[in-house]
Design a protein that fits this description.
Oligomer: single chain
Radius of gyration: 30 Å
Shape: elongated
Helix content: 25-40%
Bound molecules: zinc ion
Distance between the termini: 66 Å
Order of helices and strands: EHHEEEEEEEEEHEEHEEEHHHHHHHHHHH
Number of domains: 3
Length: 461
């Protein structure tokens, strides 16, 4: 049974001011209604004034994703009643969005996949209701915040694809610097349309509203696919409806059916004239698509695993946090796999400059420094000591080559059983011998060098 999924994603733009007035965007935890004005309150006689920055950001996203920027676009009123919407309508875009078409290339388990878009448009957010013991208040700080809505074609066939798409899209809007896209703070919200069909016919679409985490997207869709599949298999009809996701019970629940769906009575916003969005196209964005960056990395570093390179790209969310750039620069002077391992799995990340990182990885590998000791060196680098000094100190404390060989011979003599085991092919005995050796030596030993000496001695026997 084939599920078909389309997504509608709302992304809060990081503009200085709101969509149709000059109020600044409220910081987290702001006093309710401290960032509002008569336009936010929806007073009669006020006039909305579109925010050029928000239009430019939307057009930039559209251009970046290779959509068509509209030569004739307009805003529309979408009518509904709710206490957090004092105007009685939301200013949105109905039939002439800023951007049509386009696609989002994303990484899924080491492969590049592209998903087509229907449209991208701009609208304003509503306020919110805050319930407390004393009653409910309306907070309009959020009212009028610019939201870009990205609507995909019904192109996903599994919850995994939908999730990967969302993550890929988040990375792109972060890199473009147009949103923080923090799902926990509601900067990125998702609705999903999903249908399941047993035959070639299209199924009946069911909408799931307001999914607010990547994990929930996957579990809500999985639940819904199973629920609809069971109905189809039992020969029952699927009702066209809107459902919500109950994150505590991990199920979707019916919110309203088609009969109770609102008619928004869209009409053109009379206070904002239509315009040519192409006038807002700025210079070509020079930021690489994450997927292109991944493809280039795979070509340049075939020795590294796709999964790790994907992880690297996914962490590069801005120019200040450019994991790929640090990795590329450091890999010119140190082994790429080593750099990658230290960045991704041993907590260095982008905390060191590429030159320091390269010197560190190169030194750790050349001197055979153990992970534990290397971690101590990192802590010292973080507290301001120079990597060269630290590595030099380590090298000077290394046991000399002659002493090392003498030490190995003596340990073998004192542990004949372990030596016999090793000769019989029990590799574990080697670790035991090295352990014994490090106990008898005053300085630091290079375990790789010890292994080499043991190897030579084994051949001699
Ligand atoms: Zn305002």
């Amino acid at each position: 049974m084939q599920p078909t999924i389309g997504l509608e994603i709302h992304v809060q733009l990081k503009t200085k001011t709101k969509m149709f007035c000059r109020c600044t965007l409220a910081p987290d935890g702001a006093t309710p209604n401290a960032y509002t004005c008569p336009i936010c309150w929806g007073y009669p006689g006020t006039l909305p004034f579109p925010n050029c920055e928000a239009i430019k950001m939307t057009v930039m996203l559209g251009t970046y994703l290779q959509g068509t920027i509209a030569s004739h676009t307009k805003f529309d009123r979408k009518h509904y009643f709710y206490p957090d919407l004092p105007k009685g309508y939301q200013i949105s875009q109905y039939n002439q969005p800023l951007v049509e078409g386009g696609s989002v290339p994303v990484l899924i388990e080491g492969h590049v996949r592209s998903f087509e878009l229907e449209r991208i448009h701009l609208e304003e957010d509503a306020g919110k209701l805050v319930h407390s013991q004393g009653g409910t208040i309306v907070d309009l700080n959020r009212a009028g915040i610019p939201l870009v809505e990205i609507v995909t074609k019904p192109v996903f066939h599994s919850p995994l694809e939908a999730r990967a798409f969302l993550q890929g899209l988040r990375l792109i809007v972060r890199r473009l610097g147009i949103s923080d896209a923090d799902m926990e703070k509601g900067h990125l919200r998702c609705d999903a349309n999903i249908s399941v069909s047993g035959s070639d016919e299209h199924g009946v679409p069911v909408e799931i509203k307001n999914i607010n985490s990547f994990a929930f997207v996957e579990s809500a869709l999985s639940y819904e696919i199973e629920r609809q599949s069971k109905l189809v298999q039992a020969g029952k009809a699927i009702v066209k409806e809107t459902r919500g996701f109950d994150e505590h019970k991990n199920i979707t629940v019916s919110q309203r059916t088609k009969e109770s769906a609102p008619d928004y009575r869209y009409f053109s916003e009379p206070d904002i004239p239509p315009f040519d969005a192409r006038e807002f196209i700025e210079e070509k964005v020079k930021i690489a698509l994450p997927t292109d960056e991944f493809t280039a990395l795979k070509k340049d570093f075939p020795q590294c695993s796709s999964e790790e390179l994907e992880l690297l790209v996914n962490r590069s969310s801005s120019s200040k946090n450019d994991w790929v750039a640090v990795f590329r620069a450091a890999s010119k002077r140190a082994r790429a796999e080593g750099v990658l391992a230290w960045m991704l799995h041993r907590g260095i990340g982008v905390s060191l400059e590429s030159a320091t990182l390269a010197a560190f990885v190169e030194g750790v590998e050349r001197l055979g420094i153990s992970t534990r000791e290397a971690q101590e060196i990192i802590a010292k680098i973080h507290s301001g000591e120079k990597v060269e000094t630290l590595l030099g100190k380590h090298a000077s404390e290394l046991v000399s080559e002659d002493d090392l060989e003498r030490g190995v011979r003596s340990v073998i003599q004192k542990n004949p059983q372990a030596w016999a085991d090793l000769k019989a092919g029990k590799v574990r005995a080697q670790g035991y011998l090295i352990g014994q050796l490090s106990r008898t030596q005053k300085g630091k030993i290079d375990p790789r060098r010890v292994s080499e000496i043991i190897g030579i001695l084994l051949k001699e026997e």
